[in-house]
Design brief:
Layout lengths: L3 H9 L3 H10 L2 H22 L7 H14 L8 H11 L10 H18 L3 H23 L24 H7 L14
Helix pairs in contact: 1-2, 1-3, 3-6, 3-7, 4-5, 4-6, 5-6
Length: 188
């Protein structure tokens, strides 16, 4: 299976070789689907942790902690962009434009949120199902949105936006701190 959901599962379970291998084989439609799925997953994870209208301090602290864990150089994830992605997922601000930096920030935030939750395998399955549903809702909203301007692209109802194709090296840098599995390919 070489689909975006399997690639995201590999990333979220620390099977980075499997994740990287799948990403290298993606077609253009699979890249778009992976970006939508990543945005949907972040939307679900953010709304499980934070609520609209809440104090800004917990979001700032979370972003700082996630950057500390997954961005040791401090250069790959812009904290302002990362916070904006969270507030956009909560409907508190406009969507963040899609670009490789947004994809990296989404990935770091998602890894941090799910690591903090400590999901069991069955819970991860339910989470991925919810992420697919959220991605489907965003994709449906995208097809109903005029694509005449750059701001309309990826502006789903949640404000999280869908991701553009990331530069491969940026996505893989995020997981460097996870263990690599010896046998990364698992059929699911």
């Amino acid at each position: 299976m070489n689909d975006p959901t399997a690639a995201l599962r590999g990333l979220l379970t620390g099977r980075l070789r499997s994740h990287d291998r799948r990403l290298r084989r993606f077609s253009e439609p699979q890249w778009r689907r992976y970006g939508d799925l990543l945005a949907g997953a972040l939307l679900v994870a953010v709304r499980r942790r934070f609520v609209a209208g809440q104090d800004r301090a917990p979001v700032i602290r979370f972003v700082a902690a996630a950057r500390e864990r997954y961005d040791p150089t401090g250069r790959d994830v812009d904290p302002v962009r990362a916070e904006a992605l969270i507030w956009a997922a909560l409907g508190e601000r406009p969507p963040v434009p899609d670009d490789p930096a947004a994809v990296v920030a989404r990935t770091v935030l998602l890894l941090g949120l799910l690591e903090d939750e400590g999901l069991l395998p069955a819970e991860l399955d339910a989470f991925l199902t919810a992420a697919e549903t959220a991605a489907g809702a965003e994709t449906a909203a995208d097809t109903n949105t005029s694509v005449g301007t750059d701001t309309a692209v990826g502006a789903g109802p949640a404000g999280c936006g869908s991701a553009a194709e990331p530069e491969q090296h940026q996505v893989t840098e995020v997981g460097d701190r996870h263990q690599h599995d010896p046998d990364p390919v698992q059929a699911k």
